Amino acid sequence: MRYLSESAIFVLYVKNAAGQVVQNINGGGGDSGSYVIAEPGTYYLQINASESWKVWLIPVVDNDQQIH
Asked: Is the pLDDT reported for residue 58 higher than 70?
């Protein structure tokens, strides 16, 4: 997962299917970065921001696998 924030306030919570926070990302003022969701499953994002932001989900592929 990649993210970009143009907000002075940016908090991104990655939550598992049970609603537990598995990652808390705090940033702001043009912050960007990435986070690898290592375990397969259902996840939810909660984003609190004062302005615009973007999130991209990018599949991670092993050398033995291909995306079709």
From this structure: yes
